[in-house]
Structures are given as structure tokens and as C-alpha cells.
Design brief:
Blueprint (H helix, E strand, L loop, with lengths): L5 H4 L5 H9 L6 E2 L11 H12 L12 H15 L9 E4 L1 H13 L5 E6 L3 H9 L3 E6 L10 H7 L4 E7 L11 H11 L5 E5 L24 E6 L12 E4 L2 H14 L5 H13 L1 H24 L4 E2 L7 E5 L7 H12 L1 E2 L1 E2 L10 E5 L4 H14 L1
Parallel strand pairs: 1-11, 3-4, 3-5, 5-6, 6-7
Antiparallel strand pairs: 2-8, 7-8, 9-10, 10-13, 12-13
Length: about 375
Amino acid sequence: MKICSDKILKIPRSGIREVFDLLLDYPDAINLCIGEPDFTTPSFIIEEAFKAAKSGATHYTANAGFLELREKISEKYKKEHELHYAPDKQIIISLGAMEALFLALMSILNEGEEVILPDPSWPNYEAQILLAGGKPVFVPTKEEEGWILTPHRIAQHLTAKTKAIILNSPANPTGCVYHKPQLEEITNITKDKDLVIISDECYEKIIYEGKHESIACLDGMQSKTIVINSFSKAYAMTGWRVGYALGDEEIIKQMTKMQEDVASCASSVSQRAALKALASGDGAVDKMLEQYRRRRSVLLGEIEKTPLTSCTPPQGAFYAFVNIKGWGQNSRDVALRWLKEAKVATVPGSAFGREGEGYLRVSFSTGEDKIKEAFHRIRNIL
């Protein structure tokens, strides 16, 4: 008898985790594959959580989370995007954005329905679609087109079974950012179809050119869009596990119902910390963004000095998708070579999809000196 289910056996193992496992054998390696800020959560947020725990905020909350936190998120979207979401009906607090995404997919997908997603993209999308009984449909994106999902390619992959499209802006792993004209083009080919847009906006505060645009802001799109967001990246709160979703009342209702069966609620102490982040965190976010900006500049300079490598500058997030086709090997082999010979850890682009072959994801959520030393080592093995 097979102990594990067919569904779980279909889920591919993340190529990112392979690198992390190998890192154990290279304790002196410089880690450029980490997908989280290297900053400690701002002290005033930590202090607020400590105070909340001491005062007794250690119990279950409503399945959808503290109403006060949902109200503050509603205010944020009204202020930043002129969108109104009813705090008691259209917002749910989750265990990070990952759970919000899972709850959304489980709430909208029937068995065999298709979800369009960019290739390359974050591998957890594929896994969660499969777990929800759906079928991931990968649409190629190209470096020379800015890694953006183009309306022409989306149209080629639409079928009678298409249920949703996942957009990620700013994007992991490419750092691409969708601007309003590009979002309008996508809207034009989907507005007459019964589709749900899942807009992953977790890196919304980490943008280097222009400003963050949400497809939910476009005419007629708010009711068709599930916005996924998180406190993890902007406020350096990855371990606190607080995310949220905003969307149509019926979808949020079903997500909230499922929350009871999956996790009951997000951590009460973490939700109090998130409230403080929203109230007082803008200054800390700006300081971290300025450091990311400097690191990005250093990284792009080091790439330019390194033979056989190139990179389209990322517009957001803290990843560079580095073109290593000149090395004459597949991305996994180059990543292993950099790790074994140069003691520098990166993620092979193939971990993010077929179109990621020939690239490495390099994170610059680490110090400038480490970035410089890493590429010094890489140049040495040439």
C-alpha cells in the first residue's frame, strides 16, 4: 500500500531548497540565495509585541483576524490606492502571504481548472495550484521584454478551463514591475471573461523605478481581483508570519471559513506587531529601501565587471536574475560550480521554470561587502 497520497507525490521539490541543503557542507560560503531581508524587525515593533504578550494578547482571534488590524489595512488601501474594502467582509489576516494564496486557490478552484502564471515565477505557485486540484499553465516571459506577461502570450494560453491568472509585481525571481499601461493591456483581454486575478503584491514597498500599481485599481477590476500582501518583506517580519488578502466578499467569506480548518487564526501577538508596523513603520521601510537601493547598485556594478554575466536591472524586490548563458553550462551546473569553487550560493534559474534556464537568482538582501567579496570570488574562478 502506498502511504503518501498521489496529490502530495505530484508536488515537485523546490530547487531553492536543494541549494539550502548543500549550503550545510559549505559553512564559509556567501549566501546570495536568501529570500528574506537580512534586517532585524524594527525594535519598536518587537517592543509592541512584547507589550501585547505581557498584557494578555495571547489568545485566539477571530478566524479573519483582529478587526482593528483589518480596519487599518482598509485605511491603507483607501489612502494608497483609493480602494474601499469593508474590514469585516473583504479582508482576512493569514499566516503570511503563503497561506493567503493557498486559501484563495482552494476557495476558487474546481478540479482540473487552469491557472495562468508567468514562467519564470516563484515555485510555490505551482505547488499550491496542484494541491488545490488545479492545473498550472506556464506562460513564457522574456528578459528582452522585461519579464512581463504580455497580453498576446496570455491570449494564446486562455482556454475554457482557465479560472485565474497570477500576477506578481514586483516579482520574484526577476524583479520585474508591472506599470499601469501593462496592467491595462492585460485587463483588456480578460475583462469580458469570467476570470479571477490573483495579484501577489508582497514586495510593493521595494520599488526602485516608478511606483507600485495594483490591477485592482483599474476600472471594474476590484471585484475580480484577490490582492495578496504581507508584512514579511516590507517590515522585515518574515518569521512573524502575518499576511492578508483583500477581495470579493464571497471569496473572503469562503477563505475565512477554511481558515478555521487550516490554522484557526494568525498569531495574536504577531497581529499586534503588524498593527504597530502599519502605524509607525514607514520610516523604517524607507531606510531599508535606501539600503536595498545601494546594494542593487553595487551588485549591478559587480555583474558588469564579471565576464560572461549580464543582468537587466531589477525594478523591484531584492533579486537580480543574472544571465549566465555565456558560461556554456546549464544554470544548475553553474550554481553548483559557483558554490563548490567560489563558495558563493545562488539559486539556479531552472528552479523557477523552463524560461529561467540560463539564469541565476542572486539576492541582494545582504551587505555590500559580502556582495563585493562574492563576485571577487566568482571572477577568481574564471
